[in-house]
Amino acid sequence: MNVKRNGAIKVSSKNELGPEQLSELMINVANSRCKASFAKLFNHFGAKINSFGNQRLHQQGLAMDLVQETMTRVWTKAHLYNPDKAAVSTWVFTIMRNQCFDMLRKVQHNKEDAFGDDIWPLFDSDDAENNEDDFKLTGTLLQHVNDLPPLQRQIVQGIYMQEMTQQELADKLNIPIGTVKSRLRLGLEKLKGFMEKHYD
Length: 200
Known about the structure:
Blueprint: H1 19-32, H2 35-57, H3 60-76, H4 88-117, H5 132-145, H6 150-160, H7 166-173, H8 177-199
């Protein structure tokens, strides 16, 4: 939608900006791509988003990433803001929470991948077909998956062979996602131990 501009911006003597001021700044960004108005929005919300990020992500670097990602989306999606539906702060914090959720998912996924990749061979190169050792190792590893306890085997096979997400497995098996995570961790640890013995 095209947001209409509602006159000049009122500058407060305090750092905190009121709802009307925030709305006027957002309208300037939406209609005119006003960098000065965006800078004021950034200054207003930056510290709040950073504080939220520190509480949820527990890393200053990730908190700063959350600030950047959130405000980048505010800049690119400013034309979608509708002052009749929500206050600017509500709109911005909704973007922030969605972005934070995405970052948490990526962080968790990367942790699991980093652990899983230690024991699960990945064949991305063109030479993989000629590497008999890799295929022998994969066959041995697959055979060892079958030796895992049934509950752990079920999770490992679902994640790495059926390429299901942890949430999909939790839903399919009707168990908490925390149970999926713990079974996956135990299964991978046993496979990693096997790999270490295999290479020794």
